[in-house]
Amino acid sequence: MPILAGPEPLTPETTIRPARAGEEDVVLDLLADAAAWLAARGIHQWPQRFPLESVRHQIQAGEALLIVGSGGRVATCAVSEADPELWGETEEPAYYLGRLAVAREAAGLGVRIIDWVGEKAAAHHKTFVRVATTRDNPALRGYYERAGFEHVADPPGAKWPTSLYEKRVAESRQAEDLRP
Q1: What does pTM read for this prediction?
Q2: Are residues 105 and 92 in contact, defined by beta-carbon separation less than 8 angstroms?
Q3: Which residues have CB under 8 Å from 122's CB, separation 6+?
Q4: Taking 80 as the threshold, does the pLDDT of residue 173 lie above it?
Q5: At a CB cut-off of 8 Å and minimum separation 6, what does 77 contact?
Q6: CB 34 within 8 A of CB 46
Q7: Measuring CA to CA, how many Å separate 167 from each of 129, 134, 147, 160?
Q8: Angle at 76 between CA 71 and CA 80, to 5 degrees
């Protein structure tokens, strides 16, 4: 089941919503801009442009999300309930966050997106939010560690040098649980 059915506020200035059919290039452009920004800093963790079909599949599955501000689309990410290619078959329910890209004019929004995924994970009775990142980018690994993720493994069979991280989410408390 997708993490989100329709738009909702992310911050007072932004809304998060599922990407729609026909918005593949919007998602691809955000990812390409992030890849170019990384490459300019000597970090080559993403292709110059992801394959159209991979984004189309994520949109059809309800996994691709767009974050929209007053100036347009400012970020994207994908959230799924499984990542067997990197994580294998797991018992614990989790959300897998990937392809997180934030336009430079919205720098800093990534942490809010990560927190939002954690809030949704708790509300949907997930145990973890998990991410896979390049093993060769210490700055990004530090970013996830500062956001509360713990390193789990560096899978030897991955297609690219990968580090897996997870963050345990807090239990969601319903209003009735808080009554005296």
Answers
A1: 0.92
A2: no
A3: 169, 170, 171, 172
A4: no
A5: 64, 65, 67, 97, 98, 99, 100, 101, 113, 117
A6: yes
A7: 5, 17, 9, 22
A8: 150
